[in-house]
UniProtKB/TrEMBL annotation:
Species for this entry: Pleurotus ostreatus (strain PC15)
Pfam families tied to this protein: F-box-like
Protein name as annotated: F-box domain-containing protein
Domain F-box: from-to ranges: 11-58
InterPro entries xrefs: F-box_dom (IPR001810), LRR_dom_sf (IPR032675)
Residues forming coiled coils: none
Length: 873
């Protein structure tokens, strides 16, 4: 049953968030072609409402609407049926088919309002518009591009007017805090371009925050404008053109990162005379030979106006066609290329280089399995890289099919020769495949199904992050704070011990939780301490809460000499509970806590802040034990007796003591004038069940601000004296007497305070057992008296809050008019109870300066809550 109860408890929301985030293992949710949500997120969202809310932000973080037939239905669903989902959307792709959608000239009027709801949008992708469609969308998408949190904008396959005025209008409406802008396959409406006709420059739009600009296959008219986009703080430029091209005149030349995406059929770029990139990346696909690829790379680098300023060079070459003759010359061309790079390095700037060369399978031989071939290829590679290797400028790592063969140098740079199947692809074909992705075609769905099956089998084989394991383990340990004693614990949760058996890593992480609380009961003291002392002393370091219950009648063996040494190992203790020590009903009664090493335990724990002593006979040891724990903040004395008749001459002083609990302390100890000194006491908790009138001990500081009383209705009313000035009073009272006895006790207690006018907060918890018809009849009469008393108390001074909770434990009894059974109330009866409480406490509820809260709970005799009524202002 303990297992079932433990598992049924809800996991902390932080842990659920970590679990869901781990299942959502997508690397880049903001990427243009990111993956769909993992299938495991959907069943997680059905667990309960809490899981659903947490999963929602992951499932709906990416929304892609591509099929125009579904535009209106999907947007309508979001706008009218599920507007709460807009908050989760951070990536939104909106696309349509140019060939199919040309006839559409308008969208519904509500679409503009729909677009305004994307308040948390970070990335927006607009794909595939004709001129007519663009005009229809222009005003509608303005709120979409103006979203205040938008940081990245994709505009793809977009047809604009010849003067680009419509495209400029969209950019002018875009959030000025935009950080990334991608213009991909953006072209003019006119098919004929006059190279000598330079278009009039439109008004420029300025993006101060723009850090990254990508221009891929952008129409020549945009490139030739003298002014179009101002981006003075540009850091990175990514460019791709299928033919000869120049850097746009309007583009900032202050960027530090330059990346070009080309194939060998492209003309060489004209970089101008101003750019000074420190990081230069060439991503090239070539149908030509390795000679053509190497030549293109060298010519491209030579066109940089300041090649000596390049610090990091990255080259990725995908050679789609290579015959046997070309491959024989492979290393010669590589050697020539690296001789050229050596010249660049000699200019003084080049600090690092990364190169990846992919060639088709078949021309290299089976280097993935033949170690002799691998060794031979490595020798050739080292010869080709000779100039740079000798200079120490380029440590190299050689690998094939992700299989390491050897390393040379410090692995700070990378050359990767990779054999793989490469189809004859151009980037336009890649873009066509991406188009299938966006159109939600059959090919895309088939691809996704394969991707899902791969993800399902692999995601769970990955090792959980350490932080997540720690949160899971902490969620299973529900034994409370280690520095707070609340009675016996239920033992180590079974889930914790099971987790410790998963592997060594889990065991190491579970150990501090399993041994955080150690409880040793009577009869097992010696064998359990012997295990800790001799076999597992390292476990003592994990013990933060040590609970030792010693009955000398059960533990009749002589205490071993090693006991003090064992106790000295518990150096990280924060809380210590000692019970039934020094019982006079034993032949070992003459043994003191000193003899048992208790003082060693108290003295060697520098972090000890909580001490609970229960059932302890304090005689000659009282002077010796308490001074060893002078750093205490919380001291609890429960059923402490003593035969001492004289006061302590030099009482121990506890400057840090904040909380003192006195539970059922015999009268002799209470009348001592000196026992301990606690000048900074904040809270006094007193519990007694004697009919004798209780007095605040003379040795207790009177400066405490919080007073808590745990009593029975037959307990003697306290005598507070004439000095104490608590501002917070809590009374926990229980019993089976009539309701009038409870109210009388409470009123008498509060009236006994020397300064009731100084009370700021009063909390009263009443538990009435054995409720019958008579008690039900008098309940509301007594509550009316209590209301009058509270009202007068408020008039005395500065009372800010009153909290009253009454728990009534009853069998099947009827109320005053026998109209209903309290264990089976109707909604009408509940409403009547609520109205009664509001009427009884109306004067208090109307006080604006008072925080007033009343809860009336009806419970069965077994303790189950049947129903409750609550009134508060």
């Amino acid at each position: 049953m303990s297992d079932i109860g433990l598992v049924s408890k809800p996991l902390p929301l932080e842990l659920i968030s970590e679990i869901v985030a781990f299942l959502d293992d997508r690397d880049d949710i903001y990427g243009l072609f990111g993956k769909p949500p993992p299938p495991s997120l959907f069943p997680c969202s059905l667990v309960c409402r809490a899981w659903n809310i947490i999963c929602r932000s992951h499932i709906f973080c990416r929304v892609i609407i591509c099929d125009f037939d579904r535009h209106f239905s999907r947007l309508s669903f979001l706008h009218f049926t599920a507007p709460h989902l807009f908050k989760a959307i951070r990536f939104f792709h909106f696309g349509w088919n140019v060939d199919v959608d040309d006839s559409v000239t308008a969208l519904p009027s509500w679409v503009s309002d729909c677009f305004k709801r994307f308040e948390n949008l970070r990335v927006l992708s607009l794909w595939g518009g004709s001129t007519d469609m663009l005009k229809a969308l222009d005003l509608n998408i303005t709120p979409l591009v103006a979203t205040p949190r938008l940081r990245k904008l994709y505009i793809q396959t977009w047809c604009f007017e010849d003067d680009a005025s419509d495209l400029l209008d969209i950019l002018l409406s875009t959030n000025p805090q935009l950080e990334e802008l991608v213009l991909d396959n953006v072209f003019g409406a006119s098919d004929v371009v006059d190279e000598d006709d330079v278009p009039d420059a439109p008004s420029a739009v300025r993006f101060e925050a723009l850090r990254c600009l990508e221009l891929q296959n952008v129409d020549h008219s945009l490139v030739r404008y003298s002014a179009f986009i101002e981006c003075p703080n540009l850091k990175s430029l990514v460019a791709e053109w299928p033919e000869d091209w120049d850097l746009p005149p309007w583009c900032s030349t202050n960027f530090s990162d330059l990346e070009i995406l080309v194939d060998t059929d492209c003309g060489l770029p004209n970089f101008g005379k101003a750019i000074r990139p420190s990081a230069f990346t060439i991503d090239i696909i070539g149908l030509g030979s390795i000679l053509e690829v190497a030549t293109w790379i060298k010519d491209c680098i030579n066109r940089l106006p300041f090649p000596d300023l390049v610090r990091q060079l990255t080259v990725s070459a995908d050679i789609c066609r290579i015959d046997e003759q070309d491959f024989k010359a492979f290393y010669c061309e590589i050697a020539d290329l690296f001789c050229f790079l050596q010249q660049i390095r000699d200019l003084g700037g080049l600090e690092g280089m990364s190169m990846s060369i992919k060639v088709p399978v078949g021309c290299v031989g089976d280097i993935t399995t033949d170690m002799q071939v691998q060794a031979r290829e490595l020798v050739k590679l080292e010869e080709a890289l000779g100039p740079l290797l000798k200079s120490g400028g380029l440590p190299v790592f050689y690998s094939s099919n992700s299989k390491s063969i050897s390393n040379v140098g410090q692995f700070r740079k990378l050359l990767k020769l990779e054999s793989k199947h490469v189809a004859r692809q151009y980037r336009t074909r890649q873009r066509q495949y991406q188009g299938l992705y966006l159109k939600d075609s059959e090919a895309y769905r088939a691809d996704i199904s394969m991707e899902i099956s791969h993800q399902d089998t692999s995601s769970f084989s990955k090792q959980l992050p350490t932080e997540l394991i720690l949160q899971i383990i902490a969620g299973f340990d529900r034994r409370g704070n280690s520095n707070t004693y609340s009675g016996s614990v239920t033992g180590v949760p079974p889930c914790l011990t099971a987790c410790s058996l998963v592997c060594h890593a889990w065991n190491d992480m579970c150990r501090p939780y399993i041994f955080r609380i150690v409880e040793i009961s009577a009869g097992t003291l010696i064998p359990r301490l012997s295990f800790l002392h001799f076999e597992a002393p390292h476990l003592c370091n994990y013990v933060l809460d040590f609970r030792l219950s010693l009955d000398t009648r059960a533990d009749s063996e002589p205490f071993p000499a090693w006991l003090p040494d064992c106790f000295s190992r518990f150096r990280n203790l924060g809380a210590l509970y000692l019970a039934d020590i020094g019982s006079v009903n034993s032949s070992l009664a003459e043994l003191s806590p000193l003899d048992m090493g208790i003082t060693t335990l108290l003295a060697t724990a520098p972090n000890l802040r909580k001490l609970h002593l229960e059932g302890w006979d304090l005689d000659r040891d009282v002077v010796s034990v308490l001074p060893t724990s002078s750093r205490l903040e919380d001291l609890s004395l429960n059923v402490i007796s003593t035969s001492m008749t004289t006061v302590v001459s030099s009482p121990p002083r506890f400057d840090g003591l904040q909380i003192l609990e006195l539970d059922n302390i015999p009268y002799p100890l209470l009348k001592f004038k000196t026992f301990i000194e606690c000048p900074n006491l904040r809270s006094l908790v007193a519990e007694w069940y004697d009919p004798v009138r209780w007095k605040v001990p003379p040795w207790v500081s009177t400066r405490f601000s919080e007073l808590t009383l745990n009593v029975n209705v037959w307990s003697g009313c306290p005598d507070f004296g004439e000095v104490i000035q608590p501002s917070v009073l809590t009374i926990n009272i229980s019993g089976s007497e009539s309701c009038s006895n409870f109210i009388t006790w409470i009123k008498t207690c509060v009236a006994s305070l020397p300064f009731p006018n100084l009370l700021h907060r009063v909390t009263i918890n009443i538990k009435v057992t054995g409720v019958n018809e008579r008690k039900c009849e008098e309940l509301y009469r007594e509550l009316e008296k209590l209301s009058v008393f509270f009202h007068k108390l408020c008039d005395l001074g500065v009372l800010q809050r009153i909290a009253l909770k009454i728990e009534l434990f009853a069998g099947r009894v009827n109320t005053i008019n026998d109209s209903y059974d309290i264990l089976d109330p109707s909604s009408e009866v509940k409403a009547q109870d609520l109205a009664k409480l509001k009427d009884l406490f109306s004067a208090l509820l109307e006080r604006d300066s008072l925080d007033f809260d009343v809860i009336l709970e009806w419970c069965s005799t077994s303790g189950d809550l049947v129903f409750y009524t609550r009134v508060q202002n």
